[in-house]
Design a protein that fits this description.
With about 625 residues, this protein is of the alpha+beta class. About 65% of the residues lie in helices and about 10% in strands. It has 2 domains: about 475 residues, no CATH class; about 130 residues, Rossmann fold (3-Layer(aba) Sandwich), CATH 3.40.50. Keywords: Membrane, Transmembrane, Transmembrane helix.
Length: about 625
């Protein structure tokens, strides 16, 4: 830790100012406050690359941080950006969105208190994966980049936002703040840019407020299940239950609330933030007729740098933006398309080079039971938002409808093709499509509001029913913390960090919250395999080896396997003993290996042992 995180705060601030310098130097057609909220987004994407390239050349994260800092400072000195003009009429709204964004990130993402890390309940699985990637770079030694849960398997996951957090971790911010602070800046920027897009689309703040509200509180008809649970369990029992009615597998409700998606999947947060920035720039250029060259160039460059952050967002932006440039007959289209394509090629080769069997397939209707069920499926999953969207098609101005129609291509594509083993992962496309679609939903609500006599009360009813499911989901994630890493996990991981080499490989169970991978930055021979499955990686051979090494029915063979598989340490804790996949032969390990750590958790009386191979 350096100066208790001050270095990390300075690096993050430098990144935001670097982004503002780029926007100022290029003189993009943005309002002052639009540039302010976009600055961290515009800065983080290239800053992560400026760290990564020296790291890939030298294997040193410190070198990457130093090079990135020097380059960002040089841009700042050369650009000499002036202070932004802050439009007072938008300031209160942006401040409110920033406050909401901080509440979501601080309360839901690895909040540390009572010696434990807590997350909002829906995030317990994703949070452990991201923390393992962050600590593998920031605390351990992950060079060349490989999966923390599968030592030696090249990391083809889009890890750059976690790599950026690893730089902050390395500079002393620790796990919680290296996740919360960049997450807060990205979420504030994302929500604010959606608001500003709505403000431009309708030429009124009310349109922007409605647009960002419909995105944040997205949800379908799941609130009917909430009413049922309220009647069955009473208010107290209802409030203690799972209020995320946007994801109820038994009823095939799978269009998860937008905020839950971007908080659970940090890669999507970065990708969607760039997506919102590109939409705003393209609207200013194509619809409002502002100067195009610099705006298209920066939007194209950021898009081209995006695949190692979030592939789904890259595909969505490239598809919709390409159609927009074609429909609006933009003569300077190549300023966007050239960098968007050419910068992405090396990343595509890196990702494709590590892929196993392709999981691309045709699946009409996404997760609808059959093509005939598609209309009812989307009505249940979107509720009144779907009806408002359809109504908006007939209400918006022609130029605005012309702007929106290319985004329908994302919805159509994701309803036909599936790109990963788990078809649910297509929700990332639909969540991206929701951002521009909310503009048309807001148009319908504004139309209702302006109707004589019954307009305002009808508007209130429609808005309430539209956002009720999403509001319940938001309340649930904010006020139902889940213990992600217990005091025992923290204690064991601290011992591992202080007493084992940074590149050590452990034999562990398949627990997603193993202290080895999640907190200490060390690697597992085979950790939680669920993530590997969704990334299309075959882990069956290693799973067989893990079972064989833990059971150790043949002592000589077990010792050979430990050596041949590069195992440095063996962890035997409650997750290993309770695994339903293998038996742990502790007698073998006690008699044949050196016991270097033996500790019993005083709270739950679980014993943790670590053996050195």
């Amino acid at each position: 830790m350096y100066l208790f995180g001050l270095a990390g705060l300075l690096f993050l601030a430098l990144t935001a100012v670097f982004g503002y310098s780029l926007l100022s130097a290029l003189k993009l057609p943005l309002k002052g406050l639009e540039a302010v909220v976009a600055s961290p987004i515009v800065g983080i994407i290239p800053a992560a690359w400026l760290c990564l390239i020296p790291y890939m050349l030298t294997g040193s994260l410190d070198n990457g941080i130093a090079v990135a800092s020097v380059i960002m400072l040089a841009v700042l000195v050369l650009a000499r950006p002036g202070l932004p003009h802050v439009e007072r009429e938008h300031l209160a709204i942006v401040a409110a969105l920033a406050t909401l964004a901080f509440a979501f990130t601080f309360l839901c993402l690895l909040t540390y208190y009572n010696g434990e890390y807590h997350v909002g309940y829906p995030f317990y699985g994703d949070a452990s994966f991201h923390s393992s990637v962050i600590t593998s770079f920031g605390e351990g030694y992950n060079y060349p980049p490989s999966y923390p849960v599968m030592a030696g398997q090249t990391l083809r996951y889009t890890f750059l936002i976690d790599f950026f957090s690893a730089a902050l971790y390395r500079l002393g911010l620790g796990l919680q703040w290296s996740v919360v602070l960049p997450g807060w800046l990205l979420l504030t920027g994302l929500l604010s840019l959606i608001y500003f897009l709505g403000d431009r689309f309708f030429s009124r703040r009310a349109g922007g407020i409605l647009t960002v509200t419909l995105v944040m509180l997205s949800g379908g008809l799941g609130f009917f299940l909430g009413i049922r649970d309220l009647l069955d369990n009473g208010l107290y029992g209802f409030l203690l239950g799972n209020l995320n009615y946007t994801t109820v597998w038994s009823y095939n409700l799978v269009f998860t609330n937008f905020i839950i998606i971007v908080l659970a999947q940090r890669t999507a947060l970065a990708g969607f933030a760039i997506g919102a920035f590109v939409m705003l720039v393209l609207y200013a250029v194509l619809v409002q007729g502002n100067e195009s060259k610099n705006g298209l160039l920066l939007a194209g460059m950021l898009t081209g740098l995006l695949p190692m952050f979030h592939v789904y967002s890259y595909i969505a932006i490239l598809l919709s933006s390409g159609l927009l440039l074609l429909i609006f007959r933009e003569r300077k289209w190549y300023y966007f398309m050239a960098p968007a394509l050419f910068l992405a090629i090396p990343q595509a080769l890196w990702i494709a080079g590590q892929m196993g069997v392709s999981h691309f397939n045709v699946q009409i209707g996404w997760m609808a039971a059959s093509p005939a069920d598609i209309p009812l499926f989307w009505l249940a999953n979107m509720g009144l938002e779907l009806l408002l969207l359809i109504g908006g098609i007939f209400l918006v101005e022609r130029k605005n409808l012309k702007f929106y129609l290319p985004f329908l291509a994302i919805f159509m594509m994701a309803n036909i093709f599936v790109f990963q083993p788990w078809d649910y992962d297509n929700h990332k496309f639909f969540s991206f499509w929701l951002m521009p679609s909310a503009l048309l939903m807001a148009a319908s609500l504004l139309y209702v509001y302006e109707l004589p006599k019954l307009g305002k009360p009808l508007f209130a009813v429609l808005l309430t029913l539209t956002v009720l499911t999403g509001a319940l989901a938001s309340a649930f994630i904010l006020f139902h913390p889940y213990v992600e890493y217990s005091q025992a996990n923290v204690y064991v991981s601290d011992w591992i960090k202080e007493n084992t080499p940074k590149d050590a490989v452990f034999l562990t169970s398949q627990s997603p919250i193993s202290p080895v991978t999640s907190l200490s930055g060390r690697k597992s021979y085979l950790g939680y395999a669920g993530w590997l499955y969704t990334h299309g990686i075959n882990y069956n051979d290693r799973l067989y080896e893990v079972k064989s090494m833990y059971s150790a029915t043949d002592a000589g063979k077990a010792l050979s396997q430990l050596s041949e598989n590069g195992i440095d340490y063996v962890l035997i804790g409650p997750d290993e003993r309770g695994s339903g996949q293998f038996y742990v032969n502790e007698e073998f390990y006690d008699s044949r290996l050196e016991l270097v750590f033996n500790w019993t958790d005083p709270t739950y009386h679980n014993t943790y042992r670590i053996y050195k191979v």
